[in-house]
Amino acid sequence: MRQALEAAGGRDLWHESGTAHLLGTCRMGTDPRHSVTNAEGRCWDIPNLWICDGSLFPTSGGVNPSLPIQALACRIGDRITAMVRRGEL
What we know:
Blueprint (H helix, E strand, L loop, with lengths): L1 H6 L58 H20 L4
């Protein structure tokens, strides 16, 4: 990855030899032109696909993201369950 980033012009790269939380790449949002999912984690392009992991965050914060990821997964699961009960899925 470092070589790819350097080849693309990346500078001041940071490396962690231990574990890390993978974040980004599937941003939540209100506009499909600027996001991958809506605010409920449902993909704009694949309506039967929900994303509920760290990739929903556009960037990392200053704290461990495990609890927010768990909260989002529970919230999204609740929304899917409610949609099933209403017969929308």
